[in-house]
Amino acid sequence: MTQEVTRATFDEVMVPNYAPVAIIPVRGEGSRVWDQEGKEYIDLAGGIAVTALGHSHPKLVEVMRKQAGELWHLSNIMTNEPALRLAKKLTEKTFADRVFFANSGGEANEAAFKLARRYAFDHFGPEKHEIISFYNSFHGRTLFTVSVGGQPKYKEGFEPTPGGIKHCDYNDIEQLKALISDKTCAVVMEPIQGEGGVIPADIEFAKQVRELCDQHNTLLVFDEVQSGVGRTGTFFAYEQIGVTPDILTSAKALGNGFPVGAMLATEEVAKSLAFGTHGSTYGGNPMACAIAEAVIDTIDTPEVLSGVQKRHDIIVEGLKAINEKHHVFKDIRGMGLLIGAEVVEPFAGNAKAFMAASAEEGLLILVAGGDVIRLAPSLVIPEEELAEGLVRLEQAITKVIANSKAA
């Protein structure tokens, strides 16, 4: 017998680390979802840049059902065909020679940071262990990844956290020059900061980061958990920037919502994760890898990737048109279908008001911090649904502005 559950059930049985909104979606198709009451929403959030092919994509459903009837799980004392096929495709499509599979972006980053330190230990000794990251970055929720991440609020109350980690301002090469040394084992960066406000890396900055890493025998780690798998219009964002990392992490869109993560590395670097140095019970399981293979086969095509830029232009033009009428944004920025609109001063710190109002209008959007509305829809969302979503967004913005004036 199926139990009836409501939003109140969350407060009764779940740990309170989340504060979910009132609606409970129960069904999704493409870029639309429906809640318990049957209300329809256009999804411009994509599960935080995850459902890159929308909900219940027929190809992925087919692959999942087929694999479910064959093999769900094997321990890593054996390998499996879906994992090998996926790894082969990832190495063929990227700079990387080797792959480690995990269950999430946080786990992929944990593996990347461990590998960076282990590689430095193997080649230069224990003194070369420092990691440099950037303020406002986000790399996961494990103790190591929140320490490398550049947002102190995520470390509060969990100290002491791992040491040997420094931070500097994103896109500020002079600060990085002052911090980096022969003790630095890795510089970790997102090609476009997602949680930190949807801020792309300056091309020249990224190139100079690569040069500094080379000068100091330091590994460059790109966190592409949010920006990867077609989100920016190329398979990975580093291709557009023209800078190749030594290690790259992926998750989110890789499984279109099925838990899977991957750390990619060059052969030389990957050697340091020798037998017994790291592992994952579920990482590389056949179900996750079969689905991920179908995801990249579907996304990494000229039709889908070129469509990302077309949809980017539609959204940006739509946001500009809204702004001309309502003067609510101070900046509109991003790459591909990871777009941020920073709100003007009267609403600074309260971008969530627009998210709540949007839900009332039948629209799902995101925020990035307190100041930025974030849009990360399906890469294949129909243009007419994008247009309707922008109409609903304007209605929500109109409501928030009216309420602020009334207050």
Automatic annotation (TrEMBL):
Q: Which PROSITE patterns match?
A: AA_TRANSFER_CLASS_3 (PS00600)
Instruction: State the free-text cofactor note.
Output: Binds 1 pyridoxal phosphate per subunit.
Cofactor field: pyridoxal 5'-phosphate
Q: List GO terms (cellular component aspect).
A: cytoplasm
Q: Where does pyridoxal 5'-phosphate bind?
A: F138, D223, E224, V225, Q226, T281
Q: Which UniProt keywords apply?
A: Amino-acid biosynthesis, Aminotransferase, Arginine biosynthesis, Cytoplasm, Pyridoxal phosphate, Transferase
Q: What EC class is this?
A: transferase
Q: Name one GO molecular function term.
A: N2-acetyl-L-ornithine:2-oxoglutarate 5-aminotransferase activity
Pathway stated in the Swiss-Prot or TrEMBL entry: Amino-acid biosynthesis; L-arginine biosynthesis; N(2)-acetyl-L-ornithine from L-glutamate: step 4/4
- GO terms (BP aspect): L-arginine biosynthetic process
Q: Which residues carry this modification: N6-(pyridoxal phosphate)lysine?
A: K252
Q: Which InterPro entries match?
A: Ac/SucOrn_transaminase_bac, AcOrn/SuccOrn_fam, Aminotrans_3, Aminotrans_3_PPA_site, Class-III_PLP-dep_AT, PyrdxlP-dep_Trfase, PyrdxlP-dep_Trfase_major, PyrdxlP-dep_Trfase_small
Record-linked Gene3D superfamilies: Aspartate Aminotransferase, domain 1, Type I PLP-dependent aspartate aminotransferase-like (Major domain)
Q: What EC number(s) does the entry state?
A: 2.6.1.11
Binding residues annotated for N(2)-acetyl-L-ornithine, in chain numbering? R141, S280
Q: Where in the cell is it found?
A: Cytoplasm
Q: From the UniProt record, list the reaction(s) this protein catalyses.
A: N(2)-acetyl-L-ornithine + 2-oxoglutarate = N-acetyl-L-glutamate 5-semialdehyde + L-glutamate
Q: How does it assemble?
A: Homodimer.
Q: Kindly give the PANTHER family that the UniProt entry links to this protein.
A: AMINOTRANSFERASE CLASS III, SUCCINYLORNITHINE TRANSAMINASE
Q: Which family does it belong to?
A: Belongs to the class-III pyridoxal-phosphate-dependent aminotransferase family. ArgD subfamily.
**Additional detail:** May also have succinyldiaminopimelate aminotransferase activity, thus carrying out the corresponding step in lysine biosynthesis.
Q: What's the name of the protein?
A: Acetylornithine aminotransferase
